[in-house]
Design goal:
Radius of gyration of chain B: 15 Å
Structural class of chain B: mainly alpha
Structural class of chain A: alpha+beta
Shape of chain B: elongated
Order of helices and strands of chain B: HHHHEE
Order of helices and strands of chain A: EHHHHEEEEEEEEEEEEEHHHHE
Largest sheet of chain B: 2 strands, antiparallel
Oligomer: heterodimer
Number of helices of chain B: 4
Distance between the termini of chain A: 113 Å
Strand order of the largest sheet of chain A: 2-3-6-5-4-13
Number of strands of chain A: 15
Largest sheet of chain A: 6 strands, antiparallel, barrel
Radius of gyration of chain A: 39 Å
Distance between the termini of chain B: 18 Å
Largest interface: A-B, 36 and 36 residues
Number of helices of chain A: 8
Strand content of chain A: 25-35%
């Protein structure tokens, strides 16, 4: 049996001689490593000299144009080239995404820059939205230092007004949205051409109510005459029960709250205006939006006094209604109705 | 002896080339067939070549550990006959 085994005669037990040799190697290696750690330049110089032939051979294989190295290299070079192209492609894809993102941001900023220079506004970035705040507010990153004031209108884009500043800190501000529950403002509905009250319903929706008999349909524009160029949005749904005295139009802003990234804040606070001024402004807005003839727009009769039974003061915030009331009484005495 | 020198030089060349991972099977084979102490010296020289001693010579320490580990477990992996002959 033994002769069929592949055997080698030898003694592999750990003899004292082997132990001694192992110890010798260990000491030598530790000395080398210690010298290397203490004098790294020394080990590097020694390595440079000792490894020179190996380095030359590897260099020859890597760079020479001789037959053998070329043969060895060709396949590896092709593989490496494939890897490099793959990596470049991946980088290119990543770069494209970055470019697109920057481009979008650039366009948004340019739009805001145009807005902020053409009109006296401050561009602000939206820090928090109602869904991340305890209140139905927007938090923006511009505050008192940048000239933001309480009562200033806040726009998305050029003329789409989204709310009013209600609190200003040094570095940030809070904006109450027109859709916040309890918020009331005078609105003008283009189409039936009537004034109404815009009420915040929450959840990004506001409501206008009009008497029965008026043509209230989807996609009619709702303007906020108290604010310069104040387009709020358009009617997205109409609730009309013939048995009820009023019909409701639900209004949604042009830009969804979740899509708001930049807003512009007017540096001026919303001011009080007379009815005549409001009417003129509304006519101007209607003419701009509908591009109708000036005479035709001037001929439009506003029917708010006749049609809206419960005529209320036009306001832009529920909080300042009372203040305005007092002011209105005085104005009424002077045969003028105040409005925002 | 010639084979040992050839494999040693091959390991040295592969270790500083882009195909360094091909050196690993040769190193393992070398360790189990010969005493691999010279590989520690080679690892120290390679670390010196790459300037690793300016930080920490991971390769040298790693090879040192592996060499002594293999040296320690090698007798347990061999079979002996009654006549103290090893079956390879």
């Amino acid at each position: 049996m033994k002769k069929y085994l592949s055997t080698t005669r030898g003694n592999y037990h750990l003899t004292p001689h082997k132990q001694k040799r192992r110890k010798r190697w260990l000491i030598l290696v530790i000395v080398f490593i210690t010298v290397g750690l203490v004098f790294p330049w020394f080990i590097s110089k020694v390595s440079e000299v000792v490894m020179y032939p190996v380095h030359s051979v590897v260099g020859w294989i890597k760079n020479s144009d001789d037959a053998i190295p070329v043969y060895l290299r060709s396949r590896n070079e092709l593989l490496a080239e494939i890897e490099q192209i793959k990596a470049e492609q991946e980088t290119k894809n990543g770069t494209q995404l970055t470019i697109r993102k920057l481009l979008d941001e650039n366009i948004a900023l340019r739009l805001m820059l145009g807005v902020s220079t053409s009109t006296d506004r401050v561009v602000a970035k939206v820090l928090s939205r109602p869904n991340t705040l305890a209140y139905d507010f927007l938090q923006v990153d511009q505050g008192e230092k940048q000239g933001v004031k309480v009562g200033a209108a806040v726009y998305s884009g050029l003329d789409s007004v989204v709310g009013v500043v209600v609190h200003v800190a040094e570095e940030y501000s809070f904006v109450e949205l027109f859709t916040s529950p309890g918020f009331r403002s005078t609105a003008f509905v283009v189409g039936p051409n009537v004034f109404s009250t815009l009420e915040g319903m929450g959840g990004g929706i506001a409501r206008v109510h009009l008497p029965q008999g008026l043509s209230l349909t989807d996609e009619q524009i709702v303007l906020l005459p108290g604010v310069f160029d104040g387009v709020y949005g358009e009617i997205v749904s109409v609730e009309n029960h013939p048995t009820q005295p009023e019909q409701y139009g639900y209004v949604s802003p042009a830009v969804a709250m979740s899509s708001l990234y930049f807003v512009s804040i007017d540096k001026k606070v919303i001011s009080l205006k007379t009815t005549e001024e409001i009417k003129d402004e509304v006519k101007e807005m209607v003419r701009e939006k509908t591009r109708l003839d000036k005479d035709f727009v001037d001929a439009i009769n506003f029917a708010e006094e006749e049609l809206v039974d419960d005529f209320e003061l036009a306001t832009t915030s529920a909080d300042i209604v009372e203040d305005i009331d007092n002011l209105n009484i005085e104005e009424t005495e002077n045969s003028s109705v105040t409005d925002l | 002896m010639l084979l040992r020198i050839f494999i040693f030089l091959l390991i040295a060349s592969l270790s500083i080339s882009p195909w360094y991972f091909f050196a690993v099977p040769f190193v393992i084979w070398y360790l189990f067939n010969f005493s691999g102490y010279e590989l520690i010296i080679l690892a120290i020289l390679i670390d010196g070549y790459f300037g690793a001693f300016y930080n920490f010579p991971y390769l040298s320490v790693g090879v040192l550990v592996v060499v002594f580990l293999v040296d320690f477990i090698k007798p347990s992996l061999l079979m002996y006959t009654k006549n103290n002959e090893v079956v390879s």
